[in-house]
Amino acid sequence: MFKTKNFNESIYHKDFKKDIHPRGILSAEIVGAMPKVDLHQHIDGSLRPKTIIELAEKDGIVLPYDDEESLKLFFHRGAHRGSLSLYLEGFGITTSVLQTPESLFRAAFEVIEDNCRDGVVYSELRFAPVLHIEKGLSQEEVVEAVIEGLENAGKKFNCSWGLIICAMRHRKDSLETAQLAVKFRDRGAVGFDLAGEEAGYPAKEHIEAFNYCKKANFNITVHAGEAFGVDSIWQALQYCGAHRIGHGTKLVEDMSITPEGNVIKIGKVASYVLDHRIPLEVCLSSNIQTGAAESYEKHPFRHFHDMEYRVFLNTDNTLMSDTSMSGEFLKAVGHYGLTMKDLEKLTVNAMKSAFLPYRQRNYIIYNVIKPGYKEIRKALLEN
């Protein structure tokens, strides 16, 4: 279940000379070769357009478009509307084609395959089982199908993964979902999450689910500070016992920043997150698309990174946001001037924050990630 890639057969490109930008900026080829970790990715937001079309045809579902390029652009345009609620509309389509064991297996398998091809050495995939029971599957059957897809892909591509089970903020069955997540902890479920629209649906209303996870010594992450303010992050930490924060963009509201963009003071919640090394699962592209941040230049990631928060980058939804881990890295390089050393630090931050046992996290850091970056540097020097 948690296997690491055999680096005796390197996945990295050998000819790096052409990858060096004239100004020394990291190129797409170099970034693509870097080992990466993605801890915040939704399975139902990361489908291939071709897969959606084929599954819809099989199930008799009518799509807005029946060709890959048009459908892909439909999802991309839908995501770029400056609102989380509008961004989430596309999931009505993706979940509609994920209502059978075969479709769930395929979606999970392909996400791992796509990630491995992008150099992602460890993925934590998440989804809400309750959204996949419209055709009579039980939630247990839904999770079984997804895990089988992840297991098969992990073995075939020699990639590591973990599964996070999501409850939805607007529903009343989060305790059942938490129990489901804990039930599958020996099959690859590594954490419990609360997702969905933040405004009007406070996390503390799901306290029973979080208490169940805490008593079971189970990992917790919470979508917070994406579409609502600092109070949402505070609730996730102090009511829900979150070990990680999904997005956390609004934490910037607890910082005093000069017109020149310098942080001169941070508040109590921001201090708590920094001092207790609470990991922040930042998703640059989707944050801009949902309006969680006004622009890349004004995204608080640069403050989180400069102040040494436990921050790292993630894709969120590769389909909706038209991105990949390489794409997120390249945005960080282009907008914030990050170096290879910075990207390695972000990757190590992510692996340190993964919901894997300590020894497995360390193994991937010291036997996969660091040797991978060392190999790239060596190849660049040789050329």
The tally of strands reads: 10
CATH architecture: Alpha-Beta Barrel
Which percent range describes the beta-strand content? 5-15%
Cα-based radius of gyration, to the nearest Å: 20 Å
Under CATH, the topology is which?
TIM Barrel
The number of helical segments is: 16
Helix content: 40-55%
User: Stretches where pLDDT falls below 50 for ≥5 residues?
Assistant: 1-23
How many discrete domains?
1
Chain-averaged pLDDT: 92
Can you describe what's shown?
This protein is an alpha/beta fold and 383 residues long. The chain has one domain (17-382): TIM Barrel (Alpha-Beta Barrel). The protein is built from 16 helices and ten strands. The chain has helices at residues 28-33, 49-59, 68-79, 84-87, 91-96, 101-117, 139-157, 174-183, 207-215, 230-238, 268-275, 284-290, 301-306, 325-336, 340-353, 358-382; strands at 36-42, 120-127, 160-168, 189-195, 220-224, 244-247, 255-257, 263-266, 280-282, 311-313. The chain has an eight-stranded parallel beta sheet with strand order 1-2-3-4-5-6-9-10, with helices on both faces. A two-stranded antiparallel sheet has the order 7-8. β3 (160-168), α8 and β4 form a beta-alpha-beta unit. α6 packs parallel to α7 and α8 (174-183) packs parallel to α9. The radius of gyration is 20 Å and the shape is globular. It starts with 27 loop residues before the first helix and ends with a helix. The model is unreliable at 1-23 (pLDDT under 50).
